[in-house]
Every structure is written in structure tokens, then in C-alpha cells.
Amino acid sequence: MKFVITSDIFEQVPNMYVGVVVAHGINNSIDYPIIDEMLNKYMQAAQEKFADTNVKQRPEIIPYREAFRKIGINPNRFPCSAEALFKRLSKGKDLPHINPLVDLNNAISLKYTVPMGTHTLDNVTEDIIMRTAKAGDQFVPLGKDTVETPDDGEVVYAVGNEVRTRRWTWRQSEYGKITPDTKDVFFPIDGFVDINKEAVDQAKEDLANLLHKIFSVETQSGIVDRTHPSFEWN
Prior knowledge:
By secondary structure, the chain is an alpha+beta fold. Helix content is 32%, strand content 21%. The chain has six helices and ten strands; from the N terminus they run E-H-E-H-H-H-H-E-E-E-E-E-E-H-E-E. The chain has helices at 7-12, 33-50, 62-70, 81-90, 100-112, 197-215, and strands spanning 2-5, 16-23, 119-120, 128-132, 155-159, 162-166, 171-172, 185-192, 219-224, 230-232. A six-stranded mixed beta sheet has the order 7-6-5-4-1-10. A four-stranded antiparallel beta sheet has the order 3-8-2-9, covered by helices on one side. Helix 2 runs parallel beside helix 5 (100-112). The N and C termini lie close together (7 Å). The mean pLDDT is 95.
């Protein structure tokens, strides 16, 4: 199985750099206090760092807003996931504790100020592809049962015609939802070669090490960029 970014995406954002971590056999149905502590720690740090600031004007966020514009997404209407997290925290609001894998994802995203996704791989048999939307694509927002049709040319993460994320890193779907029963998981960490490659690499390594340490599972990790447009795992 592979994660692939199509060439037309790199034509629009040639410096795109995505870290990938994959893990199998996770027990996501029990509590892991170490993850709760991490999320609380990085929430507090982010609340202090971003307090009373205009998040969209932060240097960590501006590159994502600019890249969104390059691919035709209005970042004011559809902010990237990291911007949405930090905007919430800048107002003193906490993030909910959902389940261990989602909470770990959010903790790492906060620590390194990078947008991250968490997708179940349970029962997935096709590649995950970052591409422009095509006929037949469907998206179901988290917590809903209504079906949306992505806009023509919209950048999505998809498995077949199941859209996992709309508008690049804006919003994830029910199709890839992490639940307490999730055992196999895929994490994409979105960044840019010339801007925050080091942060993406550190987030990728930190996440892989924590998955091994906390869940006692082996991980596979790699990167996808213009010269390496796909990453394959066993």
C-alpha cells in the first residue's frame, strides 16, 4: 500500500514536503495517561505562545495560508487544521480528549506547529492519494451522515472515491475516522521543504518513537516530496 501525491499538486506547490508514519496492531481502546499529560502540556504551551495574537499572521501559519491560495483555497474561509487548532487555543479554549491516537496526533501537531492527519487503515485495500477531486468523489463530515461532493479541482486526500480530507488539510471525514476499535493508522504531516522541513522530520521521528514506546508496536515512516512522490509500506 502507498501514499501518493500526484504530479499536478507538485506543479502548484513544488516545495510540498509530507512526513508519513504508519503503525499496525494498536490498542486504542484503553487509557494512556502519558498521552493525556502530553496533550495537556502542549495545549498549555500553545495557549501561552499564541495568547492574544492574530494566529493567521504568525510566521508558522503564513506559509500554509499562501500555499492554500496557490491551489485555489480561501484560507480565511477554510483554514488549515493547525491554524484552526491554534486559533482555538489562542482564545484560552482547551482541545477535547477524544481517544489516544487522536490525542497523540494533536499533541505532536501542537508541539511542532504542523498540520497533521490521523486516518484509520482498517479494511483499507487501496492506496491513499493526494490529488484533485474527480467525478464520483464523496465526503462525509465527521459526526454526520450527509454526503458532500468536493468542488472541481479541489485538493483532497482520497482512498478510491472516499475523500478522507477536503481542501488539503482543512477537514477530515467519517471515512477515515479514528475510533476506539482502530488498530491500523496512517499519519500525514504536512509541510514545506524550504520552510519547516526540520519540524516535519522531528514530528515524524517523535511520533514514530512514541507509537513504539506507548503502544508497543513497530512503525514505518518516510517522506513524500517532488523527487519522492510516493511512500510504500508493508
